[in-house]
Specification:
Helix content is about 30%, strand content about 25%. It has about 220 residues and is an alpha/beta fold. It has one domain: Metallo-beta-lactamase, Chain A (4-Layer Sandwich), CATH 3.60.15. The strands form 3 sheets. A 7-stranded mixed sheet has the order 1-2-3-4-5-6-7.
Amino acid sequence: MEIVPGIHQVDGVNGNCFLIVRDELTLIDTGMPRNSAKIVNYIQDILNRKPTDIKTIVLTHFHIDHVGDASDLKKLSGAKVAIHEADADYVAGRKTQPAPRGVKGMIFKVLIPLFFGSRPVEPDIKLNDGDTIAGLTTIHTPGHTPGSICLFDPVSKILFAGDLLMFNGSKIEMGSSLSDPDEVQQSIKKITAIDFDIMLSGHGIPLRPDASLKVREFAKSLP
Ligand SMILES: [Zn+2]
Ligand SMILES: [Zn+2]
């Protein structure tokens, strides 16, 4: 599905996976494992391009529903994989996410190998706040994970928000309950400084038009 000219969402992949189509292809997130064929088919059949045109894979954070095919796609495209430095050891399989306390933590320990433990990939590029990657500005927005990022494309005025925020079709919601809520709120306030027309998140549907105005409105409701 073409969001605006040159920005696509690969249909049928969860979490959401986006392609920026210019001279080079840039992939933002890769969905759950076993979606790489869908992504490759989209590139070949819809875009009439080659998987080797992907030069950069940018991961918004290390969760498996975003990095599940990064290893496969890196191998078959030769692309460089980029992630914030605070999430690099997680995606490389050297660290596992600490479990929350209490009952949630007990459930989490059972689920952790399913959600976070598989398909490690060694990142080629470790990002920091303010870095430019494939024409996108990196905004460090920790809380959902330590190294969660948003990516701003100044050409299309799109903000790729990862799991910081999502639009479910009727309202804006914060990322999942594994997050540190205080840090998430600080990160949401941080992105209200940016002007963007469309917000594309890791889940849910595109928020447009006037996405930054709507996010600012949402941020006012936070403590
Ligand atoms: Zn996540
Ligand atoms: Zn997610």
